[in-house]
Amino acid sequence: MLEAIRRAISLLRQKQILHKVGVVVSVTVIGIACYVLYHMLRGIDVNEVIEAIKGTELRQIVLAALFVAAGYFTLTFYDLFAVRAIGRTNVPYRINALAAFTSYSIGHNVGASVFTGGAVRYRIYSAWGLNAIDVAKICFLAGLTFWLGNAAVLGLGIAYHPEAAAAIDQLPPWLHRVVAYVVWVWTEPRRVGRGPWTVVLPGGPLTLLQIAIGIVDLGFCALAMYVLVPDEPNLGFVVVAVIFVSATLLGFASHSPGGLGVFDAAMLVGLWQMDREDLLAGMLLFRVLYYIAPFVISVILLTFREVILGARMKRLGRAAPRLEAEPSREAAYVRERGDTGA
C-alpha cells in the first residue's frame, strides 16, 4: 500500500500535477479573499481609518514594535535549530540570525517564501560551505518548526475555548496531530526523503523544543497584533491569537506577498465584532511594523554584505598576482646563488 502511494506521488510530481494543483489552490484562496475583502471594505471611510491611525497612542506602537522585534529574534532560532540538526555546528549564530531574519522578512513580502527565502539562505550559507541540499534541509526543518508552532497554538487556543473545537472529545484536531507527531518521532529515529535528500527528523525532546520556539514566535506576533487592535469589544488575547494564526496560515497558503488580501480578509471576518475602521488601522500599522520595516532593514543588510564581500574579493584579486610573483623571485634568487656558487 505504501509503495503504491509513493509511486502515485512520484507520477504526480513527474507530470507536475502537484504543482498545478498548488497554483489552482493558491489562486482560488486569493480570489475568495479578494471577493470577501471587497464586500467587507465597501462601506469603509478612508478618512476614519487615517484618523484612527493618527489616534493610536505612541505607547501602543512602541510596544507592538518591541513584540515584533522579539518575534523576529525568536525566528533566528528556527535556523539555529535547523543548522545544528543537520550537523553543521561550524556555522556561528550570527550567520544563522542573518539568514533567518533576511530570508523570512524578504520571503514574507515577496511571496512564495519557500523559493525566495531559500534563495536568500543559499546566498548566505554557501559562503560557509553549505550546498543546495543542506539549504533545502534547513528550509524543511525551519518550516517544520513553523507548522508545529502554528498547530500547537491553534490547538491550545481552541482547547481553551472548547466551543470552537470540532472534535467530539476535549482535545481539538490540531492538538491531536501535534501529540501524535511527537509520539511518532519519540519512539524511534524517523527519516524522510531519499538518498542525499534524506532528513533525520528531530527526536521527541528536540521536537518539543521546536514546538516551544514556534509558540514563542507566534505568541510575540499575536501580542503585537493584540496591542494594535481596538480595545472594545475586549475579546481576550487567546481569541485574537487564534484568529491571527488562522489568518496567517491562510495568507501563507495563498503564497501572495505578505498574505496580502487573504490575511486581511480573514482578520476582518474573524474579528467582525470590532469597528472595521479601527481594526483596519491596527492591521495597517502591523503591516508597517512586521512586513515593511524588516524588509527595508533586510535589503540594507544584504546590500552592505554584498558590498563588503565584493571589496574583499577585489583585495584578494589584487593580492593574488603579488603572492604568485614572490615565489618566482625567490626561485630566481636561489638559481642565481647556485650559478655563482655562493
Q: Tell me roughly what share of residues is in helical segments.
A: over 70%
Mean pLDDT: 76
Question: Which strand order do you get reading across the main beta sheet?
Answer: 1-2
Spans of at least 5 consecutive residues with low confidence: 1-6, 164-171, 329-338
Could you say which structural class the secondary elements and strand pairing correspond to? Answer: mainly alpha
Distance between the termini: 84 Å
Instruction: Give the number of DSSP strands.
Output: 2
What's the helix count?
Answer: 12
Q: Could you outline the blueprint of secondary structure elements for this entry?
A:
Blueprint: H1 2-14, H2 17-41, H3 46-55, H4 58-85, H5 93-110, H6 113-125, H7 132-160, H8 173-187, E1 191-192, E2 199-200, H9 204-228, H10 237-254, H11 262-270, H12 276-340
